[in-house]
Amino acid sequence: MAFLSGLLSIGCILYLTGILFRIPVLQNLHTDARIAAAVMFILIGFFHLAKPEKLTYMIDGMLPFAQALVIITGVLEVLLGICLLIPSLQVPAAWALIILLILMFPANIRVAVLHLPAPGGLPAQAWYTWSRLLFQPVYIWWIWWAVIKIMN
């Protein structure tokens, strides 16, 4: 939910900035949503890189080389987030992020099923870890709507 809060907050700030300062490019919701996604993926990617040990528990015992996988996903999130800001790379980056979100979904299911704490020190209550599963499709839709839908 923190990721969604970030997407919504950044998107709204960008849109309002566009209106207040009459910046046409920021008065486009698709653009604002794409930039918000880029910022959030870059931030979450840096979190993966700065503290991989805080996330390895999600896949430890499920996949080998848990820490390396967390670092790889962090690098991918940062790079793909940056690519969302480069016009010629936006669509491939969006598809790659959608695939990455789908690939990471089993780790979130594992957290809920095993009653593990949510990443980042967020609540460990069952209602929270299970509700997080509902947001993964929202993030996928967000990226699709902000980048892929507008390009077609």
TrEMBL record:
The keyword Aminoacyl-tRNA synthetase does not apply. It is found in: Membrane. It is a multi-pass membrane protein. GO terms for cellular component: membrane. Pfam families: DoxX_2 (PF13564). InterPro entries: DoxX (IPR032808). The keyword Transmembrane applies. Keywords: Membrane, Transmembrane, Transmembrane helix. PANTHER family: DOXX FAMILY MEMBRANE PROTEIN, MEMBRANE PROTEIN-RELATED. This is DoxX family membrane protein. It comes from Chitinophaga solisilvae.
